[in-house]
Amino acid sequence: MEKLTQQEEEAMQVIWTLGGGFIKDFLEKLPEPKPPYTTLASTVKNLEKKGYLSSEKLGNTYRYAPLIYAEDYKKKFMKGFVGDYFENSYKELVAFFAKEKQISADELKEIIDMIENKKAE
């Protein structure tokens, strides 16, 4: 699975949210400033070439659908991110956000509950 550019990730976020569709659908859901239609069409074609999307020709247009789940993408690239920036330590990742005051005590408690409940399963 190839890493996506920021532009490709933004497009995939919309495509994952919609579950697929046409370029005009994706364009409507992208935040401002929206790229030109042709730019988005090129981005979508690149995503298809990279194996992230499938396409189905309908008349004179194409309907695109994701081939890779958002969760699978997150898992793969979060592992790389944690490895590159936090020495493969999720503890260091959480500690970083705690030090930067980007995570509250209540959120940390929720994370602990998730971990404990996962162990009980």
UniProtKB/TrEMBL annotation:
Keywords: DNA-binding, Transcription, Transcription regulation
Pfam families per UniProt: Penicillinase_R
InterPro entries in UniProt: BlaI_family (IPR005650), WH-like_DNA-bd_sf (IPR036388), WH_DNA-bd_sf (IPR036390)
Keyword Acetylation found: no
Protein's UniProt keywords contain DNA-binding: yes
GO molecular function terms listed in the Swiss-Prot or TrEMBL record: DNA binding
Any one Gene Ontology BP term: negative regulation of DNA-templated transcription
Homology family: Belongs to the BlaI transcriptional regulatory family.
Record's protein name: BlaI/MecI/CopY family transcriptional regulator
